[in-house]
Amino acid sequence: MIFLATLALQAPAAPQAGGQIGFWMVLLIVVFWTILILPQRKQQKRRNEMINALKKGDKVITIGGIHGEITNIDGDDLWLRVADKVEIKMVKSAVSRVKGE
Questions:
Q1: How many domains does the chain have?
Q2: Is residue 75 in a domain?
Q3: Alpha helices (H) in 1-101, listed in sequence order
Q4: Assign residue 72 a region: left if phi > 0, alpha if psi is -120 to 50, beta otherwise?
Q5: Distance (Å, rounded) from C-alpha 39 to C-alpha 50?
Q6: CATH label of the domain that carries residue 71
Q7: Pseudo-torsion of CA 29, 32, 37, 39, nearest 10°?
Q8: How far apart are CA 52 and CA 88, in angstroms?
Q9: 89 versus 18: which is more confidently predicted?
Q10: Residue 5 domain-assigned?
Q11: Are 71 and 81 in contact (CB under 8 A)?
């Protein structure tokens, strides 16, 4: 055991390559940013614009696959007519897409 410790202390130090490692780390972060984060932000921005543009009379499809027409909007909630005399209340964020888009 002592022999291994003495060898470790006597081993020559590895050359410092901090500049290259830093460059590759920055390059890796930039690549991940452009491939993963930027497209996700663009998609989230479009979704928020779609949700904020919802209005009475829009025909929508929810995340759960329910098709219906918006009959009323109150803040973050909306009422969706899914059949004659059948309306359900849900949050705006449950809307997946507007039909016709």
A1: 1
A2: yes
A3: 2-10, 18-32, 38-52
A4: beta
A5: 17
A6: 2.30.30
A7: 140
A8: 19
A9: 89
A10: no
A11: yes
- Cα three-residue angle 92-52-66, rounded to 5 degrees: 35
Residue 2 lies inside a defined structural domain of this protein: no
pLDDT tens, position by position, 1-33: 555 455 455 545 555 555 788 889 999 999 988
Torsional sign, CA 87, 70, 57, 68: negative
Assess if residue 61 is contained within a domain: yes
Residue range(s) defining the domain that contains residue 88: 16-98
pTM of structure: 0.67
Cβ pair 61, 99 in contact under 8 A: yes
For residues 59 and 67, the answer to whether their CB atoms sit within 8 Å is: yes
Question: Which pLDDT does position 57 carry in this prediction?
Answer: 94
